[in-house]
Amino acid sequence: MKQDTLVVLGTGGTIAGRAADPADHIGYRAGEVPVHELLAGVAWPPGLRGVCEQVAQTDSKDMDSAVWRTLLQAVQAHVQRPEVRGVVVTHGTDTLEETAYLLYAVLQPAKPVVLASAMRPATSAQADGPANLADALAVAALPGARGVLAVCAGEVHSGLDVRKVHNHRLVAFDSGDAGALGVLEEGRFTHWRDWPRAGTLWPRWESLCAAPAWPRVEWLSSHGGQSAWLVQALLEQRARALERGAPRGEMLEGLVVAGTGNGTVHRDLSAALEAAQAAGVVVWRTTRCPRGRVLAGGDSPFPVSELPPAKARLALMLQLL
Ligand code: ASP
C-alpha cells in the first residue's frame, strides 16, 4: 500500500500557546490552540494527505504518565497503519526531551516520529511554530526517514540525544557531543548522521499500557553543601507507604542522582543513597554536566547511566516496570 499519509498529533505546548498581546513571548498560556488550527496555512509536503488528532492539550511542564501513555498508544497505532508515512507530534519544549526519549526507548519506530515545538506562542507576531511544524512535516515526508526525531529552528535531532539547552532563544535544543542529525536550510535537508536505528517494541509494552501507575522514580542532584536529609525524608515516606500498602506510583522505587563531574556524589548524600539502596530503592548515578556521559570506574556503589538525568529517570522507570 502507498504510504501517503502524515498524522499530526497535538499535545499542547508553546507552539499551541495563546497570549493577549502578539508581542508577549512570556505571559502566555501554553496548550490552548487546537492542532487543526496550527496546521492551517502550514505548507504541506506535496503528494501527501494529512490527518490530525488532539491527543492532549497541556503545558509540557505538567507532563504526566497519563498523557505519555495516551501518546505512546496513539503513535504506536498510527505507525502500524500501512498507509502512514510518518507521525508528527506537536509538543512543548520543556519536557520534549523526556517524551522523545520515551518514544525512542519504547517504540523504536521504523517510520519517522517527529516532535515539533516552538519557543514563541502561536499568537506571536513572530511565531516560530509554523516554520518548525512545516519543517517537521517535511522531515516526516523524507524518503528513508525513520526513528524518533525533534525538529526546531532548522535543526534535526535524534530523540535519544536531544536536550533543551536554552530557556528563551529560538535555537533551544542541542544534541550534545553526538551532534544534530542534520539541518533544513531553505527547505533542503542536509544529513550529518544516519537516522536512528529501528528496533523492537519495548518488551513490557502491555504492562506499560495497562499498569494503573508507573514506578515512582525521583531525580536529585549532588552539590556543595548537600546533606542526607532529602533522601532520608524520601525513605521515611517510603517506609510509611510500605506500611499502609500504598499502590505503585506512590511508593518510591528508584532514585537517579545527577552527580558532579564524572558522576561523583557528596559523601553525606552518598551515605544516604547507600541506605536507600539497602532499603530496596534502585539507585543510579549520572552527571549534572550538560555535556558528556559518566565513564564507569572507581568504587562507587551506584551503577552508572550514560543518559542525562531527565532521561535516566525514565530509563530506570522502564526498567522497574
Ligand atoms: N512551558 C511550555 C511547554 O513546555 C514551554 C514551551 O513549549 O516552549 O509546554
Explain what you see.
The protein is of the alpha/beta class. The model has no long low-confidence stretch (mean pLDDT 96). The protein is built from eight helices and 13 strands. It is globular. 45% of the residues are buried. It has two domains: 187 residues, 3-Layer(aba) Sandwich (Rossmann fold); 108 residues, Rossmann fold (3-Layer(aba) Sandwich), CATH 3.40.50. Aspartic acid binds next to loops.
Write a compact overview of the structure shown:
The protein is an alpha/beta fold and 321 residues long. 28% of the residues lie in helices and 22% in strands.
Question: What is this structure's SSE topology?
Answer:
Blueprint: E1 5-12, H1 35-39, E2 49-58, H2 65-79, E3 84-90, H3 96-107, E4 112-116, H4 129-141, E5 147-152, E6 155-158, E7 163-164, E8 173-174, E9 182-185, E10 188-191, H5 205-210, E11 216-221, H6 229-243, E12 252-259, H7 267-278, E13 282-287, H8 309-320
Parallel strand pairs: 1-2, 1-3, 3-4, 4-5, 11-12, 12-13
Antiparallel strand pairs: 5-6, 6-9, 7-8, 9-10
Helix pairs in contact: 2-3, 3-8, 6-7
The chain binds aspartic acid.
